[in-house]
Sequence to fold (944 residues):
Amino acid sequence: MNSTKTGSVVVIGGGISGMLSALDLANSGFYVYLVEKGPSIGGVMAQLDKTFPTNDCAM
Amino acid sequence: MPLKYVINPDVCLKLQKDKCGTCADVCPANAIDYTQTEETITLNAGSIVFSPGFKPFDPSRFDNYQYANYPNVVTSMEFERLLSASGPTHGHVMTMPKLPMKPKKKADKALAEKRKDPKKIAWFQCVGSRDMNKCDNAYCSSVCCMYAVKEAIIAKEHDPELEPYIFFMDMRTPGKEFEKYYQNAKEKHGINFVRARVHSVTEDRDTHDLNIRYADEMGQIVDDSFDMVVLSVGLEIPQETRDMAEKLGIDITDHGFCKTDSFEPVTSSRDGVYVSGVFNNPKDIPESVLDASAAASAAGDFLADVRGTMTKAEEKIEETNVIGDPPKIGVFVCDCGSNIAGVVDCPSLTEYAKELPYVEFATETLYACAQDTQDKMVETIKEKGLNRIVVAACTPKTHEPLFQESMVNAGLNKYLFEMTNIRNHNSWVHKNNPEIATEKAKDLVRMAVAKAALAQPLAEEKINVNDTVMVVGGGLAGLTAAKSLATQGYDTHIVEKKDVLGGEALKLYKTAQGEDVGEKMAALVADIEANEKITVHTNTTLEGVEGFVGNFKSKLVSGGNETELEHGVAVLATGAKCSEPTEYCFGDDDRIIKTLDLDKMLKEQDAKLDSVKTAVFIQCVGSREPNRPYCSRVCCTHSIDNAIELKKRNPETDVFILYRDIRTYGERELLYKEARELGVIFIRYEVDRKPEVKVEKDAVKITLIDHVLNQPVEIEADLLTLAAAIEPRKDERLANFFKVPLNDEGFFVEKHAKLGPAEFATDGVFVAGSGHYPKPVNEAATQGRAAASRALTLLAKKDSLFTSGTIATVDQEKCSQCGVCVSICPYNAPGFAADGRFAGTAEINPVLCKGCGLCVASCRSGALHLRGFDTNQIFSQIFALGEVV
Fold:
């Protein structure tokens, strides 16, 4: 291993996109730091009532 | 998420004035810590995924809508909370929602008395989007049309008497299944759609009803009254994100969105920084999910040679053998704070549990899921020698894996666990009857204990994963997926039926951002061909597939030669094609062409273009029609792009675009704006009054009713371009090979419309490109990368992929070989044993079995059993329910 790169990734933003990006990275062999400025993750999607087309609860 | 409280330091009396402190006094878990302060942490990372999201547009500055002053003007985000069962009104839509639910101020109290259930609600579209007058957001926010339709439908479901009106400019529903949802909203749900930009809102001072004024399609001024107005606010990039982008050193557009290349759609201008979500252009949930996986793939490619260097291996704990030991059950009753204990008498439930058969130990916990409780659970299991665990708490859907992990940490097989839901099924629904709820909780615990006593340790079988990948389809999406998978070290085979790689993209001239598609594709194909990890099979068709996740065997046929490819995963990227128009005299005259023909002329700098004086484009040719009830998504942008190209070649050319709705979502809207500024004329037509085309010697004559003048207009064109629909390949054979579904139109159906857009419900099979739904270059590349990322997560688990323990098994001595289980299983898990003592009887493939129990119920010989839910366990639960204690 003569690379100077680090096998970890910082994901900035804990909305739906950031969370899933972090999960994919962690599950494919990288150490992930998920950084969110608010007190909880979930972002805007967690505030939605239901989502098209199945009317599944967004949570 | 998680559903936990936090202190807002700006208003906390303790933090601000060192007064109060009540929360620390009352918190039973001692979770309050006032001493926490901001600290700076330095992280070393190989790459960054920047996914900062957006801010809903703040409409306070629009004086014509009076959002800041009228109590009945709300934003769509506020309305979303009104509809939500967890919102301030518990899902009850009422007027003046911005007032406190129990107002204290006198003026608010007087207002609150006028609260009512709204009977007429108006949605105003494009608030803070497509607007250069009142704000600087020239782009389309992409999501508001769909969410307004959704909110209107749900509001109408709450109150069937409600009259919802949606005021819009263009209805933009270009996503998968969106157009049908819009048409259903009109036809089945009775939502009213009005094409108008509302001029102003005034308020009735007494009732606080809202009067709105707008010009209808005929230019007539209309006044109407509503109980409530919902402003469909756009998505905006806040200043703070722009500042951060500057700190990160990445380029952004004038509107604050990240600048990316269409072929590398999640890569920022700086090496090692990748972007996803709305910051990478306005988008909805499925596209944000695709971006997420695509960014993971791109960040992973960048760090391919250090993959796996920082991950930690889990410590393996030896499993205790409990077979033959008498059950020693531990019961953990959770208070869930006051969620359960506020209704159910948890202490008496715990005492009751102690008296049940085989129960060795029972305890009450404040939060069974808390980390300290988990640690204690592990300790207790070891100390008391417990071999079965029952948790009476919330739902196993969210919490079972957590408790099972603790069991594994204590050396117990995770299937020796039983959970019963005394919250959702009990304390929440019976909160007015605490005594009965306590009795019910006892019943539930007694049943769970009865089942747990019969629980057996179950084995999970290891799935061997062949780490070769097969990509079907050598178009942009397939190539992008293959490139990423190969970069991260996996042998990848591309199967392409044509003799060249590149697919439909080879027919395109330029992307919406102006990149030369031919050049970019040539570079991509060269990369693919130079990659040692990639094997390209051109002129090759797929003639059969056997096996399952990790272990597929595909039959490839090329020029009569048959080869077998063994692979662990498959990416289906078979694309779509342009349909042949059946109207507008297509085929009668060579001046009437399809969009891709015009691309070809532009690519070749065809001299015929120089003589074009009047060019006309007709949109939605074959799309949004009864036999193709979907929007082809790419045509509006494509035609506008080509119209601009014609105008730029020769500004004297008259260019007309005849359309139904212009759907230039996101920053594509800027192209629409540019086209209008260049003098391209847009004329809208209704689907029941389509343009008429007549071929004459000197010109192609097009007649239609102008939507502004309401008069027929005649255009004599020397070039008519038809935006022909994109249609799927409807490859039922391929779908059958991998047991993946096609929708009514023939597009592949993904695992989940929102959260699984690049994979199939069939494990190990992924989807990318226009075979899923028509998409432009950047979105095809995104989905290609996303499919690669999803496949990578599976390939990376090579040594730790197991089947579930709770699957069906066959008692082969009892099997009568009737075959009902084989025919009834939706997952093809049962088959007939080929050889051995029980040849001809049923056997279950543990990899394919999802544990649904359908075969078990269908077996008349009683030969099938569902492990973990065996007949004796279910009966013991039922008998336990009947026991009167």
User: Anything to note?
Assistant: The first strand of chain A starts at residue 8 and ends at 12. DSSP finds one helix and four strands in chain A. Chain A has one domain: 8-57. The CA atoms of residues 8 and 31 of chain A lie 4 Å apart.
